[in-house]
Amino acid sequence: MPLRQYCAFIVLVFLGMLLSGVIFISSNQMSCKQAVIDRIFPLLQYNQPSVLSGRTDVVPISSWLAPIIWDGTFDPKLIDSIYIPHNIKIVTTVFALGKYTRFLQDFLESAEEHYFSGYRVHYYLFTDQPEAVPSVKMNENHTLTVRKVPSLDRWQDISMGRMEILENLIANELIHEADYMFCLDVDTKFYGRWGAESLGHLVGVIHPWFFDYPRDSFSYERRPESQAFIPAGEGDYYYTAAAFGGVLEEVYRLTKTCHEQLRVDRENNIEAVWHEESHLNKYFLYNKPTKLLSPEYLWRDINASAGQIKVFVISDGEPQVQDVAFSSCPVEEIHLLTPLLSLLRIMRLRQSVHFSHLAMFVGLLLSGLMFLSYTSYWFRQIGVDTLTSWLAPIVWEGTFDSTLMDAIYKQQNITVVTTVFALGKYTRFLQDFLESAEEHYFSGYRVHYYLFTDQPEAVPSVKMNENHTLTVRKVPSLDRWQDISMGRMEILENLIANELIHEADYMFCLDVDTKFYGRWGAESLGHLVGVIHPWFFDYPRDSFSYERRPESQAFIPAGEGDYYYTAAAFGGVLEEVYRLTKTCHEQLRVDRENNIEAVWHEESHLNKYFLYNKPTKLLSPEYLWRDINASAGQIKVVRFSHVAKNNAEVRPNL
């Protein structure tokens, strides 16, 4: 082969290999993202979250906006920094009767290596053989209590009797002792981190045998005679009874309900097909878990594999030597080098290939692989991320089922207070705001608008929907729009403390120079809700217009920050919005005393608050777009948008 052709051949092969490397890394980048970032930027506390990248081989969120926890969907350091300061306590229950005591050694030793390290954990072990419990050294703040229970002849009775024991344990002893509770099977072993990322109000674990099956294949109880009956065509996921949990109150409701249903079935001489697991699945169908753990958190066999499973946390099977390491980063490197080694073997058989050419090829390929390994973080999937690195849902079109969301929330008969400020010339926006809100905003729910204005006579007459009311409050006129903006926090703080704390469930604070164009409903509800600013959602955090002067209470240092949030829309439960407004009001007061005004006034203080008090739900820029006439590839629906205006004409001091 002539030298020129041979060189061309080498270049083409290299480009092909490089392209294959890009494809492989782009499909597997999330499993190694943190490791890559740590190598490049070892001083960062945690890397900036993004709304434009995430795992694409799995769904990280349910249709009712519950996070589904997979490897690569959260930042463990960030999660721990949020939960450890709260000094929480996790009760963990295990049953080991009869020959199941043989699993205790592995369970306890592996748990002490991987399970809630650095947290307070209290194991409650129920067994008919206390003398068979092995002596295992507990970590600091980890304790073990052994309780003797009667022996039972059938494993089904052991399984089904667990719900009654757990119900009584919570009611009689634990209700004021702990914050969270997990109930785990003993014939298991931990192989990786199980930490605070698993905590939630009500937590279910997706069954490893059914996670990729259609629901018609789920082994639900199909006999109508049983209390666990689920009709064909219904169901979300199939959950395992080998691991479930949540806050104490929710686990108590679960165990109490399942115990009662098991009792009724026993009286009717029927036993659900999978005993307590069948009843657990019935409960979760009508009481949706607020967090789902992927099959990584209870895998079927350590020796089994599936493309979506990057890490085994806990499993039933015994490991082989090659299964000890559960990071996917070394696996990625092996996959990348395998084609290279195969090619080398082929080329070494070709006597006509000159060694120098081979060395040049190897050098080029290795340099390409090194480049890819350090830059794979920036090869982003086209689309959006639906979970933050602290596992808060990010709500986009297509991430939720609106019918299901309404079915969950409407039965709770909630009230949503919504505040709006319209001072000076901003009253001109009221007509569009109110009319469009009555078309799109929380239709079918109880809504109470509080409108603050210096011109009550300018408020237009807009027909309210059923269960929607409008209260107009007069406030003084102000000369500067900045003072209008900054004074809002004090007014909201006082409104909540003096009037609303027992009137409503949720609250949203919205700007008036806006208009609704699509549904804004129960999918937006959360404990503390922030809206990602439409101008910065696709920018690096060094570009965010945070307050950078240390003299201000709103100061955020360079290199810190998650997202940039808009102050034109935020909300949550009443208690959380009260804490937010009270804190921001206090920080604004201190700044005023120090003769400093944050660069974006209350919005700067809001961003400082959200940095250290992470929102539990984020609304995408669909929920406050910059202009109905602007476009972006990620924005499929504009629900709420600023309206075009001349700031110099409507703002009093411009």
From TrEMBL:
Pfam families, per the entry: Glyco_transf_6
Cofactor dependency: Mn(2+)
Residues binding Mn(2+), per UniProt: 511, 513
GO biological process: carbohydrate metabolic process
Residue numbers binding an alpha-L-fucosyl-(1->2)-beta-D-galactosyl derivative: 533, 603
CDD domains associated with the record: Glyco_transf_6 (cd02515)
InterPro entries: Glyco_trans_6, Nucleotide-diphossugar_trans
Transferase keyword on record: yes
GO cellular component: Golgi apparatus; membrane; vesicle
Single GO MF annotation: metal ion binding
Protein's cellular compartments: Membrane
Positions with a binding annotation for UDP-N-acetyl-alpha-D-galactosamine: 426, 511-513
Keywords linked to the UniProt accession: Glycosyltransferase, Manganese, Membrane, Metal-binding, Signal-anchor, Transferase, Transmembrane, Transmembrane helix
Cofactor, free-text remark: Binds 1 Mn(2+) ion per subunit.
UniProt KW Manganese keyword: yes
Bilayer topology term: Single-pass type II membrane protein
Active site positions, chain numbering: 603
Gene3D superfamilies membership: Spore Coat Polysaccharide Biosynthesis Protein SpsA, Chain A
PANTHER family found in the cross-reference section: GLOBOSIDE ALPHA-1,3-N-ACETYLGALACTOSAMINYLTRANSFERASE 1, GLYCOSYLTRANSFERASE-RELATED
Family classification: Belongs to the glycosyltransferase 6 family.
Protein's recorded name: Globoside alpha-1,3-N-acetylgalactosaminyltransferase 1
